[in-house]
Amino acid sequence: MDYDLHDIVMMKKPHACGTNEWEIKRLGMEIRLECQGCGHQVMMLRNDFNKRLKKVLRKAD
């Protein structure tokens, strides 16, 4: 799946706050995501991210 910095993505499982939208804040070997509901930031390995990614909701401008 094609994604880039500042895209809004949907993961397979929602965050504890109930929101299922995340913004990509950092790309590399690890990916940093920020929850769009509560602002919590999570780092995960690219392989884990690719497994948990459901779809890209909005591309960055």
Give the structural class: mainly beta
As for the number of domains, it is 1
**Helical proportion, percent range:** 10-25%
Number of strands: 5
What average pLDDT do the residues reach?
94
Q: State the oligomer.
A: single chain
Largest sheet composition: 5 strands, antiparallel
- Low-confidence residue ranges: none
Whole-angstrom Rg: 10 Å
Looking at the structure, what is the overall shape?
globular
Q: How much β-strand is present in the residues?
A: 35-45%
The end-to-end distance, rounded to whole angstroms, is: 18 Å
In the sheet with the most strands, the strands line up as 4-3-2-1-5
Separate helix tally:
1
What's the SSE pattern? Answer: EEEEHE
Task: Describe the protein in words.
Pfam families: DUF951. This is DUF951 domain-containing protein. This protein is mainly β. The chain has one domain (7-58). The protein contains one helix and five strands; from the N terminus they run E-E-E-E-H-E. The chain has one helix spanning 46-52; strands spanning 8-11, 21-26, 30-35, 41-45, 53-58. A five-stranded antiparallel β-sheet has the order 4-3-2-1-5. The radius of gyration is 10 Å and the shape is globular. The protein starts with 7 loop residues before the first strand and ends with a strand. The model has no long low-confidence stretch (mean pLDDT 94).
